[in-house]
Amino acid sequence: MRIVRDRQSPTTVIAEFVLGPEDIIRLVQVVKEDLARLGEHNFARYRVTLEQVCTSIADGRPQG
Q1: CB-side exposure of 55: number of CA atoms within 13 Å?
Q2: Is the pTM of this model over 0.85?
Q3: Alpha-carbon distance 54 to 10, whole Å?
Q4: Is the pLDDT of residue 62 over 80?
Q5: Per-residue pLDDT tens over the stretch 43-56
Q6: Measured between alpha carbons, how far is 27 from 43 in angstroms, rounded to an integer?
Q7: DSSP string, 2-57
Q8: Which of 13, 43, 63, 64 shows a CA-CA span of 20 to 30 A to 24?
Q9: Sign of dihedral through CA atoms 17, 22, 23, 24?
């Protein structure tokens, strides 16, 4: 997840995809849900390190 690993905003990452408006809305929802669930117990699933997750949480989870 470049949003956590590279500290990019969700808006920046999502803007790279060529999607219709309805698909963008759904993708934003999915990203926000994943970010809300991301934690010390499941970080490997998202291919980020524990340190990256802890830093992201301590800095405030990305909002969009």
Answers
A1: 10
A2: no
A3: 18
A4: no
A5: 998 889 999 999 98
A6: 20
A7: HHHHS---HHHHHHTS---HHHHHHHHHHHHHHHHH-STTTGGGGT--HHHHHHHH
A8: 43
A9: positive
